[in-house]
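Standup, Tuesday
Yesterday: got the pipeline producing structure tokens again.
Today: sanity-check two examples.
Blockers: none.

Example 1:
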Amino acid sequence: MQNPMKKIASGLLASVVSLSTAAAMAPFSAFADGEMLGATNFDDGVGLPWHTCETNPAKQSFDISGGTYNVTIENNDGPESRWDLQLRHRKLKIRAGSKYTVHWEVDSTSDGEMYTKIGNYGGTVEVWHNNNTDGTFNQCWNCVKIQKGHNEFDATFTAEQDVEVAEWAFHYGGKGQYQDVDCFPNGTVLKFDNLSLIGVDEWDPSDEMGVVRPESNVRLNQLGYYTKLAKKASYVTDASSPLQYEIRDKNGNVKYKGTTKVFGDDPDSGTGKTTTVKVGNQNVTRFKDSGSYVHIIDFSDFQTKGTYNIFVKDTVGVSGTQVLLNKGANDTKYSNGNLVWTNPKTKKQFVMNKSHDFEISDSIYGEQLLKDSMNYYYQNRSGVPIKSQYITSGDKSKLAHDKYGHNPDTAYVQSKWVKSYDSDFSDGEKSKTIDGTGGWYDAGDHGKYVVNGGISVWTLQNDYEFTKKNGTTKKWTNGTIAIPENTDKAPDILDEARYELEWMFKMIDSDGFVYHKLHDHKWTGLATKSWDYDKEKMENGEKGWGTVRIVKPATYAATFNMIACAAQAARLWKGIDDSFAQECLSHAKSSWTAIMAKESKWNVKQGDSSTDPYFAPLDQAIGGGAYGDTYVVDDAYWAACELFATTGDSTYYSFLKKYSNPNDKSGNDKAFSLTTNLGGGENNGSFSSFNWGCTSGLGTLSLYLNSGKLSSSEQSAIKSSITSAADAYVTQMSKEGMGIPYKGATFQDAINIGEGIDVTGYEWGSNSFVINNAMVLAYAYDASKSSKYLNGAAEALDYIFGRNGLGFSYVSGYGDKTMEWPHHRFWSNGIDPEFPKAPDGVLSGGPGAGMQDPYIGGLGYKRGTLANQKCYVDSAESWSVNEVTINWNAPLVWMTTFMMDNANGGSTPIPTDDYPKNVKANYNTQYHQIQFVWDKVQGADKYGIAVYLAGKWRVQTTNITTNSYVTPKNLTPGMSYKVAVAARVNGKWNTTDPIKNAITVTVK
């Protein structure tokens, strides 16, 4: 489930409590003996482990300032009554027979009441509530009266039973079944402070609670680097001059030496100096939390296989940092050649100028990563038991189950778009049902969405088609992929995609259109089992969620998604299972006919669901992700491309060749082209070529793989657009200290942030943009065989696996410091030990500048105060930055396949770039001549100089053997020249990029 995301109901989202990238809580030495809470006051500006939750449409906002946790009630009316608005502290343990002392204070701007309790997450066990003391437990069911102004409360109690995983929660929502009146009027501000729970246990001061903080200032790919490809790392420091570094083997022997290159400030990965930035109408302080400079470590020419680390000879380190009120949070201390940082929670010390270990080999991304990343889909199948024999990693005994989640998955069809329903669904439509059994659970929740299933199916099927083109399909039929179907003759990746595709066919209505999505009518919590949570009482004895499965109306977008994937599948299954291939094509054609009858309705710049319900609205995000889409002509183009690629029918060609997206300001989102500027639906200028909501690029890439049906000029246009898009990503990588082919955008999130509020930075699921852009680089390499694209694709993955602002691998189980606690209903071990941890090979959505969920907001951070790459926390409850989804793991599968097939060795070293970078001109005033200098190009044997004169590029020389050139003396004063420098690599000259990066010089 993706943006816009959920707000959480009573007892929902049980979670491991998380902190920030570097946030520190109040000194634990200040806590009383036996203090069980992780935070008793908020003087340091940090809220966690205390955090808010709400059930839409009830809404509250909060901030942590002035030493208090301040909650504003914006709408107290939700479906679950008083517990629609909560403040709570989790991860407590209560022991039967033990005595506890409670103290709490709250200031209120209005008279009111609230319910407060200590018990289990599900609300079925309470050991204390409403200030009871021993002997008064059953007399204290009424809410606590809160007076306007300051309120203080004390109580003692003896627990009557054990609660292994407990919370202390305050409930203050609206009236309902167990609440006669609204707890407080809208607009009320509650200020919580001086909260204490004294008992037999104490909060563990070493518990980092999900903190993500670099353990080395050498940021690199923690898996390693291919022998023949570019190898780059980044180093964070206050040192402004180049530094010497060494590459050492496991025994400490120096195997390579080099000098860093100063890149400069990199605001995306860290804040190099304290500044003031404007967010909306507010000015906020962004504290220096990182080194002032990023240095690039390029060791591409070191090709000896082995395990190594990088040691940078730095005596300066990082100082003067601050996170919230914690000064010196990331400062290092110099000692005997090492720059040491001490983790304030665990007290562990780390040498920050020494990297994690990494490998140089020809199998960095290997068969196991392919198995594990593909296994995501099997483990998220709906409607079937999950067998341990097909699980490739993790605790198989916990991950496996013999229960059938949502089988049958009977869902009520809703004819209208309704934002929210009553808790018991008494106001929902129940006249019609469909059988929606099967398919994949989309993400952290149990929803199933055609439009997100569409791009996921396409990516897996495209992976097969790409390998088929290049003759590397063996991996799909040799038992590598662990699924029940791997003994049949069909490619396993197609088998897995088919599981979702057949579910999509069940979503086709009687008119040939496709229902948009299927999910619960309200949100559920984490640590829920797909076969259990909808019951009145769950297996563990707790009250069930009482959810009802619903299907939202049919849409243009869902229909085009099904058509595209079915048409694509038809050509791939032909000759493997002809009957299924024909079924796919039949569905695609009949639905195309149905939707084309309404072309005048959907072929518009921007649709409106209020006047045409076949457009999916952007605000349907209760119980399931919105997946709204107001522009669907891109989806129509994609569908037409797939149908044409499969059939060659001129009808589809005639439609697709006219495509042009009026929402794309770059003008590149058109037929036979690939844009880098997504426009339409939820996207407004996103720096990428495709995602679930902007799908035209998928059609163009399929045409590339089936170009035999196109004219030579159309084939050339597609290749040119692919390489042009890839060039844009390569150029962006050169501007980023961590080499990332992505930059933030300006976006809004009315549901989770508020109407009309612009946020500029990394978008929801930023890692998916990075890895989708890496796919374009891979396509560019396939189209051109230019080494810069293969190196670019590899470098993009470096960011995913650790070369980033947090020194963190976003793929579970792969790297030294990796994602562990994704937002996922079943992989919820950090919440409830009964549930499993996530398996390996799962990609997190990653940093998001919106920081929409209350957990990451509970750190005390405000939007705009953090570098983009630090807007992240590894917590199951942080749904805005740590969710996992089918469409984010699919490109991980795709890129793993590509790297396995294209980067495993080779006889010729692959140059980092095939044109000179950083061309500079040094002017000699005495002789009126210019010296041009540039960075050396690996593998280049000659350089050439060209000058733009009289409307043409004119070559001056192509016989330069060093990285400098001096012009003749006494050039004419006042003349300006545009100059380009090219390199010859492997006998070929790249002239396109040098001309794009030409510099202009003027003779003085």
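Example 2:
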Amino acid sequence: MMKKLLEKLNIIPNSTLHQKLENEEALRRQVTALFGVLSSVHGADKLVLRAGKLEALNLMRSSDLTDRVIALQRIVFENPNITERPSKEQIPEILQEVEEALADMLARRSVEAELEAKVNEKMQERHEEYLQEIRTQLIKEKTGPENAQTLKKYAKLEKLEHIRLTGSTLELVRPQALDDIVGQEKGIRSLISKLASPFPQHVIIYGPPGVGKTTAARIALKEAAQLSSTPFAADAPFVEVDGTTLRWDPRDITNPLLGSVHDPIYQGARRDLADTAIPEPKPGLVTEAHGGVLFIDEIGELDPVLQNKLLKVLEDKRVQFDSPYFDPDDPNVPKYIKKLFEEGAPADFILVGATTRDPSEINPALRSRCAEVFFEPLVPQQVEQIVEGAAARLGVSIESGVAELIARYTVEGRKAVNVLSDAYGLLKYKEGKLNRELNVLGVQDVEEVLQMGRLHPYVRRKDRERSEVGRVNGLGVVGFLGSVIEIEAVAFPAAEKGKGRLRFNDTAGSMAKDSVFNAAAVFRRVTGQDLADFDVHINAVGGGRIDGPSAGIAIFLAVYSAVTAKPVPQWIGITGEISIQGRVKPVGGIVEKIFGARQAGLTHVLVPEENAPDVPNDTTEIQVTTVNTIEDVLALVFGEQIEKVS
């Protein structure tokens, strides 16, 4: 490139310099040519200014060859301190150095010019793109993001918004005040006392399904928020969630209860955060419930690990977030994200959990942080009251016997209302078919619904006024519902004395079998007879499993009645463990068992004396008697006192 440039400027190449330029005139022409190159590089005016700054202007205009060479050196090498005058023999060598310096300068200028051209080209492209974006944005602002398709879909949504159905039946018949909740007066008073305090407590509500736990919690918050001493605001949130549906990821990628942090690539619509690789915490339900109540239905079904995480939030009243993508020193992080990572999200709420499980099945750490409230099963009269109240809210008259019929088929208020709602819907269907108004919902409508739903009576009441040999009504409990366990026994003299067989159905469970052996020992102790002299078959009707030893007395009485042929009154229900010494030991579930006996139409219940504190005060329609020994039981059941056999 330098060679071509020198050729254009009539400069003789260095390779022939010593051969052809041996006189001073040739050197002068070469110096003049080099000044011409400098002038073309810098421009004439700038060359003069440059020479002036380097104190080379006078030397450049001098007629002396040596002065001009010194001026050339100062300008090319930008050094005003060059003062040494070269000899004529040194000038060719100096000019060669100047040429090389000029060659480097020209090469650099060429590259810079090429780069500058490309930069200008890119800048022009970006400028045009920027202008196009501005034009597009202006068009969008003027016309909006709408087009024919989007406007059509919007119109369809607007049309759907104007279509309204009436509220669901369950919403209509749902209790609106605490007084509307039937059969839970004690539980409601206990619940409202926990929430109405200036220092409200976390609560777990135990009880069977469909008795109003969720509704009571919702209304109790509203009642508490009206008090002057309450910490709840008038609009305190009530966040409801089902523990059985709460699913979370152990990597904390998703956690609807506590909140989670997504990787920046998953920011969704937040493109600005995704582009800058900034993670965004997603607060969960505990933050949504801040300042109010978080109600978790079926809290006993909540994942154990998630329960432990929830306990941590209850202690700290905050949720902490963490992410390897968070950089506290990044100036692009918005303030709210930085605050969430550094301080956490507020989660100061009152936890109200509801469960149909037994308290022993709930996490002990969770129980220790919560007050416990118990809702009772509903008796038939209460279910009838619920049906009548729901019918009043529906605005329909019901025939006499409808409430009683529904109460026979369920002990759940929710299911009772569902049956009534189905019968109401059937009534309206008949009105449409007959084209006339039917003012009364009848028993026949309910029976039709019960048949279509293949429902069966919850308790099949039997003749309780008679006595039977070898048949005893034991009492059991499943969840929060008590029931009657019919235990029967038959006894025949053994074919060979002392070699009788004792049989008990295997499905009843190992503890029930232990009760059979205990009963055999007590039988011999009480009667003086060896049960091995008889073939005895004991059966739990229906093949039901008996959990625990609470059927011990009932099994003994069945065997005793079968061997002695003494009938047992069928209006009596019995619960209690029997020791081999003949003592009646305490058992659990007394309240539920008394309820189950009342449901089944029993009028008298025998319970262990040590369970006396567990017997409720309002045992209406049923008599409860405590017993301490097997002799007490025999005296009450058979009306006779049996002497102990030593």
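Quick observation on example 2: Residues 14-21 have pLDDT under 50 and may be disordered. The two ends are 133 Å apart (CA to CA).
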